[in-house]
Fold this protein.
Amino acid sequence: MTFSLLRNSNAVKAALISNNSSSLFAKRFFNLSNSKLQMSYEQELETVTKIQNSLPPKQLEKVKHIRNIGVSAHIDSGKTTFTERVLFYTGRINAIHEVRGKDGHGATMDSMDLEREKGITIQSAATYCDWKHTPTQTEYHFNLIDTPGHIDFTIEVERALRVLDGAVLVVCAASGVQSQTITVDRQMKRYNVPRITFINKMDRLGANPFKVIDDLEKKLKLPCAAIQVPMGVEDEFQGAIDILTNTAVFYDGENGEIIRETEVPEEYKPIVEERKAILIEKLADCDEEIANLYLEELEPTADQIRSAIRRATIARKFSPVLVGSALANKGVQKVLDAVVDYLPNPAEVLNKALDVTDGGEVEKEVIMDCNSDSQAVSLAFKLEEGKYGQLTYMRVYQGKLAKGAFINHTKTGKKIKIARLARMHANEMEEVDEVCAGEICATFGIDCASGDTFIDNKTDKKFTMNSMFVPDAVVTKSIKPKSNDQLSNFSKALQKFNREDPTFRIRYDEESKETIISGMGELHLEIYVERLKREFNVECIVGKPQVSYRETLTAPIEFDYTHKKQSGGSGQFGRVMGVFEPIDPKEGTEYVPMTTEFETRVVGGKIAEKHLAACGKGFEESCNKGPLIGSKVIGVRMIIEDGVSHAVDSSELSFNMAAQGAFKQAFNNGQSQILEPIMKLEVTAPAEFQSNILGLLNKNLAIIKETENKEDEVTVISDCSLEKLFGFATSLRACTQGKGSFSMEFSHYMPLMPNEQADLIAKINPDSVKNKKGGKKK
Ligand SMILES: Nc1nc2c(ncn2[C@@H]2O[C@H](COP(=O)(O)OP(=O)(O)OP(=O)(O)O)[C@@H](O)[C@H]2O)c(=O)[nH]1
């Protein structure tokens, strides 16, 4: 028999969804998201069509006019600037405020003081707005989420994409595809989110939209083509020509609010023809109808092209590209029209839940029907303490939420009254009485963690939604309040942050008697320390940032371990034999090598099945705290091949302990290794600082992978140990006169050098049974 308690990357991600999720839930989530990936698009389409056909006509009509979309991109691409225009053109705000604007107001969506001061988005903000589609003059309702670009706040992007039906990918016309663009694209792919692309900053020096399109295709491996041709670039950028309608669009008025359409100027006619041919050719590659017309050498009509773009975009086979400059108020309205034209309504997206009515014993996948008359199923995807109190953002997948009604927390079974319901607009709100299937809303005072599912009791069924990917933390810091009087507020605040943000973790280290916080980067932790001060009045003393190391085995090692306590009373006995072996990192996995696996090859019932399961549990527990420095263990497979049981004294506890003992023994006797996180670092600065940057990277022992010169700007991509990157922002500022910027994200783990490993063990775990000096050479 071979059964495995898989902790492969997806399962681990799922297990990390919330600290209190049981591994059973974790496994279910994993299976669910996995099966989601297994459905072909054709099957998806068939199912989605059935759902739409089953909706009452009135509901279908309503859903057709809803778009739940996100705005995601690399840092500083202009997402917030773009969103500010969206709010203005949809009538949500009366004046445009800029990010770090001179009016001291700051962009509306960056509503946190910290965001306005730093000029970055930290939390995603949801906004509800109405848009009148320009060609049809029909009104649509958008739930729009502006997400942060910094990798430190990546969970915000994850949870937004988890509940959104489509996205606008914003790319800078001059910088093109940057590292975070690729990360965001990968996140969109993970949640099957269709996207349209907006090439922003057409007014910037060095803007080159067609090069960006080539880049997008090459780096994101996503077919895309322009549906607009820009008129002028850099400071001569005036507007864009709509390839489908063959009209030139200009944006007049103080804020570009007056759209003026004219005939295409003579000089642009050839390029419009050329780009139209490319668009049709690309569509022919991913849409059957256009392919057939193409083969027959027939030119498709504008309507045929529009329908094909919609089909191909929703099928995630294509992304239409628009151009503009948010800051110069040019092009945003056409992106909103494109959202209506090419991104799906909630009933066009396949969403699944897991039926856990019987406690999750039998897995049963259920398709959410987007019908407001069905049993309510909604997902709490974001918690936020706002000026109105504790807010919980929910996406309603089916059924409806009504003010005063009751919902049940699937996991705890707790019944909760919905006291208030609201549609949010950045930090303003609009109270409503009910929210239907397919919509996003905020509720008040609901006690839960992000990722929890809520249902109503219309039927006896219980559902849980598959949840989101939660990346592992890479940086830790010790933290304590300056004064002991503040301990209670301190712990309350940390618990709250942890519930809000699953990438922010807290643990108490018994040995050092310190509270340790961990997160996605220095900035991530800094923000929480700052929030402790501002929101809870708790000033803290924080330790130096530390890297989150990992431990592994680099060579197979056999084990034969007996756990025995048989001196009087009821005894304990369990013997396990087998091998621990390293798991080779799989190519293309995001967190290499993230897995631990447990396998049994025991025959003849020498160890009872429930005792084998206890061994698996013991192995899992051991992996949480490695023997070298107490870090997590990754990349190890435990195979139990044989064992001995005692008729009376063997129990689940004995075998759990036996597995843990075998694990410790293997690490002490085998070739164990500490791994450190390596970051993919992208530094951009004016070209004159190229040699300074290279000098700085060399000093940090970075391995340079790519250097790209664009106009007067240089971008250097390298791999660098996270440990060397603490304080990098300050060094970069110093060597580029403050003109350099950088982004980084986790890339992979690397073995520490032998001397570094020995020093680290001596520092962290001086009592280690075996102070290893045997690190592998890099
Ligand atoms: N030249 C030019 N600058 C722009 C344009 N759009 C935005 N910017 C500027 O680019 C900078 C970053 O803009 P944001 O809107 O904060 O970018 P973001 O993507 O939301 O940033 P994060 O949320 O921190 O990742 C700001 O200084 C904007 O004024 C544009 O169309 N042209």
